């Protein structure tokens, strides 16, 4: 193959040679010239040579073919430039490129959030990396603890955070719950990690993706098609560490001024010290009072507790949530008994559409 387009064009000065003039045009493209080089090549070399004999029908045919080729390549260049421009918008490297691959990440920091809850910060492959986890999705972490143990967690960090991922874990210690005297395998393993120790991450995973501006994708079962919802309001119910997937969606909405979705959160815990990330929730409700509200309920409150007491009930939902509507979705995450005995029956009682509910 010729090494430069100049020599190739020179070899094809005669229109009736063994190669068509169109080859010159494609030759320029094959050389991956810039758009300016391409048009200069086509205009200054190929087209003038086609007018050697205006009466030559072969020349006319070549002109038509060449002009068509130029138009086609023009479209191709526009598409290429568009794709290149779109790719250049997001140069931030993602960590979770393949949901079937495990990514080993080292522990950077440990923080005591409460008496039984810890925040773990793991380093991503570089300071520029983000996790690459859409709101509503979760990751699987795994470790060999006598056997392979895998657990699902929703990070509390987002893709606005570069170089690290944070997960909040409730630690189930030995001999604290008679039903589980050995405690939690993974949570205790994480609690004993030292800085620099590694953990395997895999994802994204999950059946819900919040795309922003009220657009939600849900896949209830593997073989069922994805369901698309567009909502204006979200009723959120969380219990204990179930706040983590809810929080990621709250953050995403409030971090994007163009997202006008309104949110109510009812957050249930045993005691006041069990409330996770309360400062962030209270500050968000204060700064975005026209878009986000939070209400707490405790099983065992102190005497001066200013919010609700006891399990979530119909009155609590009516007072602190949006009423049933076709543009309102319910998102729930928490212990099974809370969801099955307190939340779902009361949403049924109040007339909320069961098709507009999602349990993480």
TrEMBL record:
Q: What are this entry's molecular-function GO terms?
A: cytochrome-b5 reductase activity, acting on NADH; FAD binding
- Tell me which EC number(s) this protein carries: 1.6.2.2
One Pfam match, given by its short name, reads: NAD_binding_1
Signal peptide (residue range): none
Q: Which PROSITE patterns match?
A: FAD_FR
Q: Which residues are listed for FAD binding in this entry?
A: 151, 153, 168, 170, 173, 185-187, 244
The cofactor required is: FAD
Q: Which UniProt keywords apply?
A: FAD, Flavoprotein, Lipid biosynthesis, Lipid metabolism, Membrane, NAD, Oxidoreductase, Steroid biosynthesis, Steroid metabolism, Sterol biosynthesis, Sterol metabolism, Transmembrane, Transmembrane helix
User: Which GO cellular component term is one of those annotated?
Assistant: mitochondrion
Q: Which CDD domains match?
A: cyt_b5_reduct_like
Q: PANTHER family recorded for this chain?
A: NADH-CYTOCHROME B5 REDUCTASE (PTHR19370:SF185)
* Family recorded in the similarity comment: Belongs to the flavoprotein pyridine nucleotide cytochrome reductase family.
Q: What is this protein called?
A: NADH-cytochrome b5 reductase
Q: What's the source species for this entry?
A: Cephus cinctus (Wheat stem sawfly)
Q: What is the lineage of its organism?
A: Eukaryota, Metazoa, Ecdysozoa, Arthropoda, Hexapoda
> Gene for this protein?
LOC107267748
